[in-house]
Design brief:
Elements (H helix, E strand, L loop, with lengths): L1 E5 L8 H8 L4 E5 L7 H5 L3 E5 L5 H10 L1 E5 L3 H11 L4 E3 L6 E2 L3 H12 L3 E3 L2 E5 L5 H13 L9 E5 L5 E4 H8 L6 H4 L4 E4 H6 L12 H12 L2 E4 L5 E4 L5 H4 L3 H21 L3 H10 L13 H55 L4
Parallel strand pairs: 1-2, 1-3, 3-4, 7-12, 8-13
Antiparallel strand pairs: 5-11, 6-13, 7-11, 8-9, 10-12
Helix pairs in contact: 10-12, 12-13
Length: 359
């Protein structure tokens, strides 16, 4: 079997390694977009696995018709067009080509799904922040280079995130727990979860082209609407590697962030209205508009600034909620006083009128 993947996955941990966990003796072939593709060599293999768009689409379809072929992809912009032709299997798992997983991660997900008859399995994940993965670090390194100051690259930082205790949950409980962290990667992304393929097809759950990013979250909201049993496992096995060239690091600015938040808020509101829970979670849902996902900055001064900003917004939000409640209480008191005064004056006028109709 031959597994073809992007050369960007040269460390052997990403999409090629995922296939190797199932087929230890697999042959790996790394390709770049500007490399000449050895079509004849590829056709010699009885089984071929292609990760993402390592091959042209026309050639992918040619292989799919002639040999035992599998395509692993996580590009929302194209997956809708090709998934019915190429996808198969009982479960669906997503992995970004610049991330990687532990060899037993898929086994843990599938075991939880089988043992609990779960429609969705969710797991903690590990965020990997390599040296120089963030803009502030890049600016600092460039400044040090310009000044001739020697700097030593720090080792990659790894942080574990998980916000749902191990266990089995029904739809309403899972939906309420989601509102504890509505902006988190943990709940919104695809790659720390396992889905039932038959449910995706039965309800025509697809990625939306409306979203510039966060299409994962919208996909999950569609899925939650139909899933009944949710299982959370304790073992983190997915490594979310911060890539300075990714969309999150290159194409997101305050304007697009606000626009996206408003779009996603509408999807959230629609989901919880359909579940009959909107009034219950409305205060938490509005928190999503100002909430921030897990920090992608390494520990140190930059992360401290982000954490301080999050704490500020949390305090400001709570202050606004408190003042709103106080104002509502004062208004209710004033309204009651006005009602009582009006009743008293009406009674006085009626008494005077009864005693002297001419008055």
């Amino acid at each position: 079997m031959l597994c073809i993947y992007h050369v960007a996955d040269s460390d052997g941990k990403g999409s090629g390694a995922i296939v190797r966990t199932v087929y230890p003796g697999i042959e790996l072939m790394g390709l770049n977009h500007d490399m000449e593709i050895p079509y004849d060599e590829i056709r010699k293999h009885e089984k071929v696995v292609v990760c993402d768009f390592a091959l042209p689409v026309d050639f992918i379809f040619e292989l799919n018709e002639k040999i035992d072929f599998t395509w692993i992809d996580h590009h929302a912009s194209v997956i809708n067009e090709y998934n019915e032709k190429l996808a198969s299997g009982k479960y669906v798992q997503f992995v970004d080509s610049d991330d990687y997983i532990d060899p037993d991660f898929t086994e843990h997900l599938v075991t939880a799904a089988e043992q609990n008859h779960a429609d969705l399995v969710i797991a903690p994940y590990k965020m990997v922040i390599p040296a120089g993965a963030t803009k502030p670090e890049q600016v600092l390194e460039k400044l040090q280079d310009d000044l001739g100051v020697m700097h030593v690259a720090r080792p990659p930082e790894v942080r574990v995130y998980g916000f749902l205790p191990e266990g089995v949950y029904d739809k309403d409980t899972f939906a309420r727990r989601l509102m504890d962290k509505p902006a988190s990667y943990f709940y919104s992304v695809l790659w720390n979860k396992l889905y039932r393929r038959e449910m995706l097809l039965a309800h025509d759950i697809r990625f939306t082209s409306e979203m510039r990013w966060a299409e994962d979250l919208v996909f999950n909201m569609q899925y939650i609407q139909y899933a009944a049993v949710f299982a959370s496992i304790a073992q983190p096995g997915y490594y979310y590697v911060q890539n300075p060239q990714s969309i999150c690091h290159t194409q997101i600015n305050p304007a697009t962030l606000v626009q996206n938040k408003i779009q996603v808020f509408r999807y959230y509101k629609d989901l919880y209205t359909r579940l009959g829970m909107y009034e219950q979670v409305r205060p938490q849902l509005y928190k999503f508009l100002v909430d921030i996902a897990e920090s992608t900055y390494p520990s140190g001064p930059f992360k401290e600034v982000i954490d301080e900003a999050k704490a500020y917004w949390k305090d400001a939000r709570e202050d606004v909620q408190t003042r709103t409640a106080e104002a509502r209480e004062r208004w209710n008191g004033m309204r009651e006083e006005l009602r009582e005064t009006a009743q008293e004056r009406s009674a006085e006028w009626k008494a005077r009128h009864d005693s002297d109709p001419k008055e």
